[in-house]
């Protein structure tokens, strides 16, 4: 990091680097696709073209970011992103909970946690969310629309309700 | 004549009419909530439409899109917060009118302008779409690929503030679309050995992730302040202030008509969309206005022009979608998904195979315009009060939970939920780093057709890639794409240079 701002990590610079890495990865995976069509254009061409374009654009973006440095870094701060990272973790946890414990219990756990992350602190509201959200979503989607519900691998409350 | 049959079909179906009115109301409310877009609502409600007949499903989502464009004006005028990007131009004069105690008048002119603009756009679509389809039918694979190429480049370079990031977003959409079995050789590609990816990345969870979950992440991070309305005085003169007189309407009428045509023209071009149309119309309206000094301070014409253009985009944006399978907007990309889910192949042959459905959909659009027009004219203030009562800290967690069940409902697959989460994180990061999620989704939808057209073209060709230069229409579209990218890059470079000069 220098006084005139050159070499600072900017959003454009990081974006360019990310594009280079993603483009290179796509190219590497695409080059493993076998060319089976003779005399025509094989299944490899579109992925290679896509990956190549991302890589090339990434190089242009990175060079552009190096040539036009900013006075100060404009990268997002970790502490600002923390709530989102927590919500990402909740999303993954919610999926895991549905997979293992079924939709009803998964939603009963995740609904109040999601409300907490958005700033709802009332215990009554959180309790209501834990009861009402799974019930309403279940009734609308799995009963009303007839979607087959995701059953938990370890345990599922629906088994209890349905007497299995 | 087909449109009259379509109108009769819609008018004699009470269930369809119910869905149209419901869509008009939902779209208006969603459009009026800052941060929520009609595209997000459509993506979330898409699984619900699996259980409807194709016309009801398409009409429901199409009208949400139309009404959502109009709904943005409610928040722009009443809360000084544009509900959608397109209504930011409406806010310039709409909110000053509210502060003068004329929110009712502003909402009336916004509603009338939106309705007229939308009707003009739809009428142009109905009259000309058949001709466009006839031209499209004469196109062979090389011309089609050239059109796809131009669409990729235009969508990638025109939307957003960076040509490189926009094009990279479009390229990433292409790469994601190639995941799964190759459609010709049935060869596994880009699946990383995961069996679940053999069927490819599903459109619905991808869209829900990018437009809905991504938006929830963004809202949590930005923690928007609670929406507040300017408390307007309810004195004796309120009714008189808010009465929209004939003289006032006549002053606005030329702006409405001109802006409608501007919006309709921009709507036909892929990727540009309502936001650009409304600002172009606002700029053009101000340039031609007799009272340019009043614009920005509460001129009624300043509300009429962007609102007419914003809504006139809706109909014509369906023309490239229905005739060529090229969505001009994110809503169009979602509608392609609906067509495919119901087993309807879009493209020029759609007008041969499903003519009645297409014209019934246009008729549903006309009914939709009338519905949101009536709801808006008489109930915009009530919708505004409803928005004020919805706490965002409860709304967004509910949207978060709905996104999960919607993504699962698409195919009854928890893998799709995982795709949705990944797409949500991708969409959030893309917004954060100024990439273009809309270009990704539109390219994702286009890529399959483009690849098919390219491969067919090269099979037809004796001279390899030269086939695209030997056919004049194909060459013209390729040139159009390259020129669009060049001019966009040049205009952005000039803008950057001048802003650096100003800063120094």
Automatic annotation (TrEMBL), chain A:
<keyword id="KW-1133">Transmembrane helix</keyword>
<dbReference type="InterPro" id="IPR009936">
    <property type="entry name" value="DUF1468"/>
</dbReference>
<feature type="domain" description="DUF1468">
    <location>
        <begin position="14"/>
        <end position="148"/>
    </location>
</feature>
<feature type="transmembrane region" description="Helical">
    <location>
        <begin position="13"/>
        <end position="33"/>
    </location>
</feature>
<feature type="transmembrane region" description="Helical">
    <location>
        <begin position="84"/>
        <end position="117"/>
    </location>
</feature>
<keyword id="KW-0472">Membrane</keyword>
<keyword id="KW-0812">Transmembrane</keyword>
<feature type="transmembrane region" description="Helical">
    <location>
        <begin position="45"/>
        <end position="64"/>
    </location>
</feature>
<feature type="transmembrane region" description="Helical">
    <location>
        <begin position="124"/>
        <end position="148"/>
    </location>
</feature>
<protein>
    <submittedName>
        <fullName>Tripartite tricarboxylate transporter TctB family protein</fullName>
    </submittedName>
</protein>
<dbReference type="Pfam" id="PF07331">
    <property type="entry name" value="TctB"/>
</dbReference>
From TrEMBL, chain B:
<feature type="transmembrane region" description="Helical">
    <location>
        <begin position="192"/>
        <end position="214"/>
    </location>
</feature>
<keyword id="KW-1133">Transmembrane helix</keyword>
<feature type="transmembrane region" description="Helical">
    <location>
        <begin position="39"/>
        <end position="63"/>
    </location>
</feature>
<keyword id="KW-0812">Transmembrane</keyword>
<feature type="transmembrane region" description="Helical">
    <location>
        <begin position="109"/>
        <end position="132"/>
    </location>
</feature>
<protein>
    <submittedName>
        <fullName>Tripartite tricarboxylate transporter permease</fullName>
    </submittedName>
</protein>
<feature type="transmembrane region" description="Helical">
    <location>
        <begin position="437"/>
        <end position="454"/>
    </location>
</feature>
<keyword id="KW-0472">Membrane</keyword>
<feature type="transmembrane region" description="Helical">
    <location>
        <begin position="7"/>
        <end position="33"/>
    </location>
</feature>
<dbReference type="Pfam" id="PF01970">
    <property type="entry name" value="TctA"/>
</dbReference>
<feature type="domain" description="DUF112">
    <location>
        <begin position="17"/>
        <end position="442"/>
    </location>
</feature>
<feature type="transmembrane region" description="Helical">
    <location>
        <begin position="144"/>
        <end position="160"/>
    </location>
</feature>
<dbReference type="InterPro" id="IPR002823">
    <property type="entry name" value="DUF112_TM"/>
</dbReference>
<feature type="transmembrane region" description="Helical">
    <location>
        <begin position="390"/>
        <end position="408"/>
    </location>
</feature>
<feature type="transmembrane region" description="Helical">
    <location>
        <begin position="466"/>
        <end position="487"/>
    </location>
</feature>
<feature type="transmembrane region" description="Helical">
    <location>
        <begin position="357"/>
        <end position="378"/>
    </location>
</feature>
<feature type="transmembrane region" description="Helical">
    <location>
        <begin position="321"/>
        <end position="345"/>
    </location>
</feature>
<feature type="transmembrane region" description="Helical">
    <location>
        <begin position="261"/>
        <end position="282"/>
    </location>
</feature>
